[in-house]
Every structure is written in C-alpha cells, then in structure tokens.
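#struct-pred

JT: dropping the chains for the assembly here, can someone run the whole complex?
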Amino acid sequence: MQAPIAQNAPLTALLQSWRQGDGASLNQVFEQAYAELRRIAAGRLRQVDGRSTLAPTELMHEAALRVLDAPVDWHNRAHFFASMSLYMRAVLVDHARARLADKRGGAQLHLSLGGVEAGDESGIAELLALEDALARLEILDARSSAVLHLTCFAGLSRHEIAEVLKVSVQIVDRELRFAKTWLNTQLGTAL
Amino acid sequence: MTPAQFARVKALFGQLCDLPEHDYLPRLHAAGDDAAIIAEVLKLLRAGSPATDRVAAPVLTALRQVAAGQPLHGTVLGAWTLEEEIGRGGMGRVFRARRSDGHFVQTAAVKLLSGLGSRAALDYLARERQILASLSHPNIARLLDGGSTPQGQPYLVMEYVDGVAIDRYCAQQRLATAALLNLFDAVCAAVSFAHQQLVVHCDLKPSNILVTPAGRPVLLDFGVSSLLGEAAAGAGEALPALRESAPAYTPRYASPEQKAGLRSGTATDIYSLGLVLAELLGARAAAADCASDNDAETLQTHALPRDLGAILIRATRPDPAARYASVAAFAADLGRWRRGQAVAARAATPLYLAQKWTLRHWPWLAAGALFLAVIMAFSWRMRVERDNALAAERAALAVKDYMISVFQGADPEISGRRDLPVSELLDAGRDGLAARLRDQPLVLAEISGILGGVYQTIGKREQALRLFDEAIALERGNQRPLRLAALLHQRAYTSYDREDFPQAEPIAREALQIRERLAADSPQLVDSLRLLGTILLYQQQREEARTLLARALALSVRISGADSVETARVHLDLGRFHGYLDPIATGAVTHARRARQIIEQRLGRDHPLYADALEILVLGLSTTQGYDEALPLARELSEKRLRFYGEISYQGGYGLYTYANLLNDAGQRLQAVPLLQRCLRIQEQLDGVGTLSSTPPLQLLARVYEGLGDYDQALAVLDQVAAIRARLLPEASRETVDLDAQAGRIRRQRGDLLQAQALLEQSLRQRSADPATHPCRLLQSQLEMAALWRQQRRLEQAQTLLDAIDPQACGKAAWRQGLIDAERARLLQARGDAAAAEALLLQAEARYAESLGAQHPDLWLLRLDRAALLAGRGETQAAAALAREIAEKGGDSIAPGSARAQRLDELKNLAKIQERKNPRAAGTAPPAAARRAVPAGAKG
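RK: done, full complex below.
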C-alpha cells in the first residue's frame, strides 16, 4: 500500500510549508499571540476554582482575536493554531522539566501567597509522560501522533485537524481513536 | 516493534475495534499474523479508548502553571501600561507602569498579585483598597489605584518611588548612628501614623523601606500583606492563590506570632522595625551575609551602647505584649536615648494584664491583649461569624468609624504618660457610643464587650464592669447564647480580678451553664470550669472548686490532649488550688511539675507560662520546706520575670516578691531585704507612692525585719501599711486583723507589753469569732496570747490556753509542733522547771530540724532559748559556745545592731565576763563538752 506523502510527513514540516506559503503574513504575530494566550489562560483557568472547562482552542481563539486585525479564514485559523500549539507544547514541556528539576533541586521555600499548587507534581509527571508517548508514537506513526498532538495541545476539532493534515475527517477519527487507545496502553493507567 | 509491524497492528485494530469481543480471536487467527502482533492488537482492543478531555488534561494543568508565571510587560491595565518588571516577591510581581490614558504622564508601580481570588475576596480587596488609598503620608507610598484584570487577577497601583532600600542607602552614605536614627525616626512616624489609621504593615523589611536621593524614607506596600491575608480569611475559603489565612511575610523579618500563624497586629510591625534597626546598626548580620533565615538568631547588642541594645531587645521580644506598646513608644525611647535621657526600654507594658500581688495569673486571657489587636479581632470575628455579609460589613464600618473617631486628634507621642492616651481616648469615645450605634444593637453589644475587654486589659476595671453590664443587657435580647456566655465569662473574670469573688461567682456560673448546655467539649467550657473553680477556691469552697477543676482537667485532656498547653494551664490552676488550700501542698508540686514539663516541651523555658509554672512549683515546695530545690527556682523565676517584662513591671516586681518571700521562709532574711526594697521601688514607679499594691511587699518586709529581730524597722514598715489601708480601705477585714496580730506580735517581742496586749487580744477575739479563719492563724494568735501572758507572768492563764490548743489543728508539719513545744518550754522555764524546759526545747529543735533541715537559720534562732537557759543555769561556757554557733549559722536572720544581736553578744561574752570575775569557775566547763552539746541537741 502506497501511503500519500502527507501521511508520514512530520507535523512541523507540514506547518513549515504552510507558513512559508500562505501563512507567511501571520508569522510575525505568533509571538504576540502567544503572550496573549498566556494571559488569557491565566485568567480563565484560575477563575473557576482550578476546575477548568476551557479548551486550548478557546484560548487560542481569543488570543488570535486579540492580535489579528482582520478575521482569519477557517483554513488559516486551523494552521495558525496548529503552529501555535507546537510552540505551546515546547514551552509547556520545558516548563515541566524545569519544575521537575526544581523539585529535585531541593529546598525551595514556598511561604508566599502565590506559590505552587497542590497536585503540581502529578500534573508535571502526566505531561511529561504524554510528551514521551507522543514522541514515541511519532516514530512509529507520525500521522497518528500529529492527530493526538493537535487534539491535546491545539484543541482542534476533527475537521480542523483534517484540514491541517490534508486528510479526510474519517481518517482523523480513526487515527484519534487508535492513538488514544494506544496511549492508554502506554501510560499504564486507566485513563 | 518496527513501524511496519506497528502499521499492521493499527490496521488490525481498525478492522476489529467495532466488532463484538467474541469475534476478535477467530478473526485474528484467520488473518494469520504472528503471535506478538496478535497480542498487541488484543491489548489495544481491551484497553479501550479514553475520553479526549482526559487525554488532554495534563496539558490544561501545565497551561495553568505556565500562565501563572509568565511576564506581562506591555499589558494595559485600566489607565496603566506595564513596562519593565522591577520586582518579584511572595505576593506577586511588580512592574513599573506608565499612565497611558493620555491625560497626563505619571509613573507608578503596579503590583500584580499572583493568582486570582474569588468574587468575595476581590470584593473585599476593593473595599479595603479605599482605606489604604486614604493613607496619605509623605513617608508612605500612596496607593493610587487598583482593580482586577479582565481575567480576574487583582492588582494594586502604587506611587512609584525612585529610591534605594534603606540598608543599601545607609551603607552607601555611611550614615553615623545619629543620622541613621533620624532617618529611622521618620520611618517610625510613618508606621505610627498608619497604625492610628488602623492599618498594619506586617511585612516591614529593608526592601520595603526606600530612601529617595533627597534622603526621604518612603514605605512601600503598607497594609498589602495583611490585606491579602484578610481577604482570604474574610472570604472564608481556601482560594487557589490567597489561600493562606495569615498575611504574607518575609521569614527573616517576621515576628514569632507571624511564624506561628497567629494573628498579627501593631506589635508585629514593632518587632520587624526592631530587627531592621538592629540590622542597620550592625547588631544583626546583614541579609546578604546571612546564609539562612535562622530562627534562633539573637541580636548581637553587646557592641552597641547598652541602653540602645536594651531598646532593640525590648522591641523584639518574642511575646508581643512584652514589646513596646506602640511604635510611638518605641520611637520615643529612641528619642530619649538620642537626647541622653534614661530609656524606658525596661519599663512595664501597661497594657499587659498584670495581676500584681496575689497568686493569680491568667495568661490565657492576658496574652497579646494589645489594644489594636482587640479591635482587629473584633472585625475579624464579625466576618467569621457573619450570617449576613451586608450586616457584617455595616458593622465593620461602624466599628472602624467609631475607632477612628476615638483616635482622632490623639497623639500619644506628645504625652509622655504611659497609658493615659488610650484610656482618655476611650473615655471620650465611649460616651458617644450608644448614641452612634443606637440602631445596631448587635454591634453595640459587640463594641461594648470589646471595650470592656480593653478597659479590663489596661486595668480600669470599674469601666470594664459597666461596659460588660451594658453589653450583657443588650446581648440578652440578641438570642446569641454563646456570645452572651462569652460576655458573662469576661464579666465574671473582671469581678474576679477585682477580688470580688461573691459577685463573680453567680455570673461565672451562668456562663458555665450556657456553655455546658451549648458548647460541651469546647475549650470555652474548659475556661469556664477553670474560672468558676478558681473563684470558688478563693471562696474556700474547696470541694466544688476541686470538682470543677478536675472536670476541666479531664475535658482538656480529652479535647486538647494530655500534653497540650491548655492542659498545662489546668494543671497550673490545680497547683494553685493545692498551694492555696493545702497547708502542705504536695499536690501543688505535682501539678506544677507536670505543667512545667509540658510547657518546657511545648513552649520552651523562655515562655512566660514557664515562669508561671515555676511560681506554683516554688509555692508548693515552700509549703513542704523544699527550700534547697525551691530557692534556685525562685531565683530563676525572678530573673525570668524581670527579663520578660522589664525591670519596671508588675511581673518583675512580683517575681522579686516571690523570691524574697521564699528567702524569708528559708530564713535567709538579710538577702530578702534588698530584693524587697527593689520591689517597692518598682511598685512606686508603676503605681505611685502609698498605693494599696505596695502593701503586700511592705507587709512582707515587716515580717522580714521581725524575723531579723529588727523590731523598730518592722513596726515602722507596718505603720506605713496601716496608714495606706486607713486611707484607701478603711473597712475592717481579715487583712486588718492580720495586721493587728502582726503588730501585736512585734510589740510583744519588743517588750511593749501593754500595746501588744490590746492588739493581740483583739485579733484573737476576732479570729476566734470568724469561722472562716485559717486554723494556722488561730493557732498563731493563741500562741502569741500565751506568750504575752507568760511575759506578763499570768502563768496560769497561759497554761490553760496552751493546754487547750489542738496541736494538730494546723496540720502535722513538724516545725509547727516545734513552735508549740517551744512555747510550752518557755512557760516551763518561767515556772522554774528548767530541766523539763530543756527537754522540750530539744524536742522542738528536733522537730524544726526534721522539717526545716538542720541548717535552717530559724532552728539556730530557736536555740537562743536554750542558750539563755544554759546561761541561767550557770553553764556559761556552753551558753557562749552555743551563742557563737547561733551567730554563725543563723547569721542570715540576725539584723546587725538589733536587740537579738546584742543578746547574742552578751551570751557570747558571758563566759569572758565570768572568767574575769571568777577564773576558776569558768574552767569547770570545758569548751569541748560545751561544743558537743550542740550537735547532740540538734539530733534531739
């Protein structure tokens, strides 16, 4: 069976090509959008007493609205979010690793009001486990990994994922179902 | 697994995942893949597909963490645009910000508080911001604005101060001490100003005290720390960010009460200011040189001038109530030091509840009862107890308005008097109270109760009683029985504190009944049991008192634990109970030892409660004649009290009194005299000359002089006591009877037999007629009367009286029996039966030795009688040898130049005189034999 090129091209490559082409005009606003994203996240996620119902999409949507002068078409939006999600993933993972190192590094005194939240450590561990699994999946099956990534980190819908990956929605559904199941066996915990 | 194998697994999974489970195996076998692949597919098929939300959850968590800690410059908040981040701390991050609404250019510091609060917390912040914004002082950075971001994150906009931290400034400018204190004075003035506006800082440290290039100190973040703490506490919930109920603080400059998580007030700022000043003066390692925030760190004040060191120590005492009463007082003392005047660093804290001369201490009510703390506790309680947020807010505002009106126009700095500003303010403000709050009976009841507590704390008990009564009357209509019980309890305590036990009793009972009904198993019930038990104890209602205190102990052990401080306090009450009611208070010793052990473990030896335990222990030991153990403890007690509370303090004076009392009991009376004189000086500085509170040490001093045989001095001191009492407390009481008895005894010993007769007869009559007279006092009167009649040669009367005495009436302590033996012996001698007299004297000596120890000076003084007897029998050598030994061993209780000293000298010289008169007769009694007689007598 001859797979289409897109199937095993890494997500980064896909997005890279998009940004060099029709996404080029948006490239400069990524930094800004990302800053906005963080601020919105700060507000929304904490507002509801730690139990967030906010999806990354909403976040990124709001961020995009704040930095983009004109409404973006659906096609660009999905790519935009997908790009931003790679960014976000890298930052989150770096952050988690730094936090873990901090904790191992020892006696940090947390007396202040802000401080570290309860449950941080398990959150960090889960994120790193997810990252690890996604990285392994990418080697075995890049498309499956990309679908999972876009679901978790970009919060994209199946249609949007289909658009970004240039595959059908049915394929996205299948990939996602498989990827989640596989992840379930990999993380060793009943999700 | 290779990507190819993986693709195969994935394909098989895709084919099978929608089929029923029993189809899996047949289909897989039919496909003919190898076992590893089949196993993998089966694993997947059985694992199931989790929900997308669940898979994405770690991402959301991580997002939240990142979101909390990222920089924000460029953000627009209201009229402000954030520029560079200029600081970062426990409470959040600080940005320099520019006013960006185009109206005018202004730079400010925007403090973005980390995390977000709930609606309630944000509302609270918004309200309190108004108060902080009104805090306008040249040395306090103004709060300009505030709000919350659209996402709900609170921020405060403050005046931007272009300056450096005070420690850096002082180092850069190489400020001399005088200039440094000048600068610090301005800091104190600002803090004091804020305190008068009822705002505390709670996080004072060098980095919060900037000095501008022009040399003006400016305090940052005033009220912010406690504001946040209050917001969290007031909202009554654990907020994601504002979840600590205690204000944020910096460990290096935090007071013990902050570290302990207790509520902090103005005393907290005094503590931190003390540490900052210590650091600036080099009495504390600078923050940069200090590797850690060492709790046990002590100030290195030895390099400083002594008084300045004392000021720092006073400001940084662990017990908030032992610090300066106000920042103004702290600054005033620094001012006195700069002007070369005597400092008050070791003076009393008048706000500290002081139970002066009785054995009653209630540290559980007294601790930390600073005026402002009381007021703050009020608004805090209202918030905690509120059912209705609006009513509570109205109440809190009413209190605040009221308190501000009380404080208006007051400047405690101007008045050098210690406690008057507060009480005068209270008096002035109290009158308008009822009128202002007529429509708010709940609030009026609360404030009346609180003010009653304040009056009680500053020792104005009459006013306290009146306010408590008003509060109780209001509260009876308020349907809040537990609040009513609390007021009744306080009211009863005030009566108790005035020693009006009959009045206190029914009120304490009512409080106890309410709490028994509604607050079983509460610490408040323990308090009620303790209070009523103690009141009854002083009413001599032994059995009920014991029952109540035993219940208090059992309950406290159950709810707080056997090793808790609360339980230790009940042990102290029980110790007091035994110490007061038992002639030989072994129970006091047991309970005090237990309390001391708990307190030492829980609070350490430097806690005032530890000294209280020592006090009861000393009391108990002194009734069991455990002087060897008790004397060092009493010295420790006295030193601790002086150190905790300062030289000029009730507690310091009382510690000296206790020590002197024990020295008197132990017969070391010459040492007791200077201690009592010091104690009296303290008392006079505190309360003035000739007050009632100086009578207990005066009475003890009279007893000491009497014990020393210095009757003239003893009478002179007793006359002072009588004059004070005649002026201030003219009604006759048991105490006046005691005074008469003491005066009669001294006059008898001095030889003023006629005057003694009147006094002794009267006191014996009154004591016999009063059924509540302590049996030991009655015995003492009877013995005195017998002695007087003996001296008057009314020997038959004396004999009848002595025969009628029940030797066991006042307990079985051997030395008391010895006292009776000795008087019988003197009567025998007066009747001419020297041999029987000597035998009885030896028996008395033996009994003294048994209970007081062979080295007790009183035992040696008792031997004076036998020396006289020996001399009377003509055994002058033996008499002289005994006299010499008495002078040596009993020297601690012989006043130089007194009649007793003269008599001893005569006895010592008797042998020489006789030797001169009749050398041969003197030689008949060999010295060795005479010396042997002494130890033989001691063994009896």
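JT: nice. Chain B has a mean pLDDT of 77. Chain B touches chain A through 59 residues (CB under 8 Å).
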